[in-house]
Structures are given as C-alpha cells and as structure tokens.
Design goal:
Helix content is 40%, strand content 18%. The protein is α/β, with parallel strands linked by helices. The chain has one domain (2-223): Alanine racemase (TIM Barrel, Alpha-Beta Barrel). Helix 7 links the parallel strand 5 (121-127) and strand 6 (156-163). The structure holds pyridoxal-5'-phosphate. Pyridoxal-5'-phosphate is lined by residues 34, 36, 57, 80, 201-203, 217-221. Residues 2-220 form the Alanine racemase N-terminal domain. Monomer. InterPro entries: Ala_racemase_N, PLP-binding_barrel, PyrdxlP_homeostasis.
C-alpha cells in the first residue's frame, strides 16, 4: 500500500522524462487513476499522494466508491467503461466526466438526465482507433457527425476524444497515434470547448505523450504494489 506513493512519484518521473523536462507541457498533463477493482483505502492513498481524478469502469462499483468518498469534494470522477443506455441516468447523476460516448443515443440520454444538475457533464467521444472488432468506440470515419450532435447538447460539455490504441507493448508503429492526434487537432479548430485528448495507459505513456495526449488513464502503474 505504501508503494502507491512511490508508484506515483515514478509515474511523474516518467512523464517528465517523456516530455524532456518541458515544464509548460508537463503542467498540462492530467493523471486519471483508473481505479476499477481497487479499494477505497487504495484510492485514499492515491489522494494523499496528490491524485484527485479517478476513472471507474463499472457503474455500481463506481457509485459505491463515490458515496463512500463523498466528504472529499475535491475528487473528480470519470466514467471510462462501456456506457449502456440503461445506465446513462446513473452516469449523468454521479460522474463529472463521461469519456466513452460512442453513439448518438448515449449523448441524447446523458443530456436528458443531466438537466437537473447545475453543471453540464464533461464528455469525450471514444474512437476505435485501431479498428478492432470487439473494442468500444465509434469508427474513425464517423466521428464527425457524433461530434456535431454532442457539441449541440446544452447539458454536455464537449471536451475532446478518448482512444485506446491496440498495443501490447510500447510500439514503433505510431500510425494510430498520428491519426488520433490529427483528429484532435481538427476538432480543436472546429469546437472551442475541445481541449482534451485522453490517450495513454500504463503500457504506452511515452507514445501517448509524444502525440499530444494531455490526459493519461493509469491503473497498474499506480495501484500494483
Ligand atoms: C483499466 C483501464 C485503464 C488503465 O489501464 P492500465 O493498464 O491498468 O494502466 C485505462 N483506460 C481504461 C478505459 C481502462 O479500462
């Protein structure tokens, strides 16, 4: 458990090294601790090491932790799992971000169920960048229309895109990273609200940061002790 603190220090060193100690870039990187299957005690350990944003994949598990940690109003909760339409109401009620919008129906329902909240929910469109059959996310050819729909919803704040390139190891084939970087640049020009590229997990932090990711979702490298 003590190792969580060390893991976070090492993660920050890795970010510094990947960005060649460029402080103005380093400052912009948000670390999301992917806390699926992790206990509230472990989340508290990450909190005491200065991590305030957490990503949950399973709605019931996530809500249980959100309720248990309610007294800490600094925490920002991201939903990073597959969104089923019947779960959109709970995502809209409990989470600050939804990173996994992959179809119009989900955007419409999230918008509908967010109406009674003061702030819109921050959303990312998930893109299936490596065109994998069983992966979540919208196809790269179709993200335009979905971005258009999402950007018009008053209770959604369209912040950008999320992707998980198919990488078992740090790779030298960077095409997927280049493509996602291009899409991010196009959307940033088109929509003022777009400022977030959520890309990079424990195995591909360096590649993600090189290709302009500013939000990394890290599980194993933080919680494995
Ligand atoms: C689990 C998970 C992560 C973190 O992956 P690690 O390999 O544990 O760093 C990131 N994104 C999503 C969507 C996840 O489900």
């Amino acid at each position: 458990m003590k190792n969580i603190k060390n893991n976070i220090q090492n993660l920050k060193k890795k970010i510094q090294y990947s960005l060649k100690n460029n402080d103005s870039l380093i400052k912009k990187i948000k670390i999301i601790a992917a806390s699926k299957n992790q206990s509230v005690e472990k989340i508290q350990m990450a909190l005491s090491s200065g991590i305030y944003e957490f990503g949950e994949n399973y709605i019931q598990e996530g809500i249980k932790k959100i309720k248990q940690l309610k007294q800490n109003n600094k925490i920002i909760w991201h939903f990073i799992g597959k969104v089923q339409s019947k779960k959109t109401k709970l995502v809209a009620q409990y989470f600050d971000w939804c990173q996994t919008i992959d179809r119009e129906k989900i955007a419409i329902l999230l918008n509908k169920y967010r109406t009674n909240k003061k702030l819109p929910i921050n959303v990312l469109i998930q893109i299936n960048i490596s065109k994998e059959k069983n992966k979540n996310g919208i196809d790269i050819e179709n993200y335009h229309n979905l971005a258009n729909v999402v950007s018009k919803m008053p209770h959604l704040n369209f912040r950008g895109i999320m992707a998980m390139p198919n990488n078992k190891i740090e790779t030298t084939n960077y095409n997927d990273y280049k493509n996602i970087q291009n899409i991010f640049n196009i959307l940033k020009k088109q929509y003022k609200s777009v400022d977030t590229l959520s890309l990079g997990t424990s195995i591909d932090i360096k590649s993600a940061l090189i290709y302009n990711s500013n939000m990394i979702r890290i599980g194993k490298n933080i919680f494995n002790c």
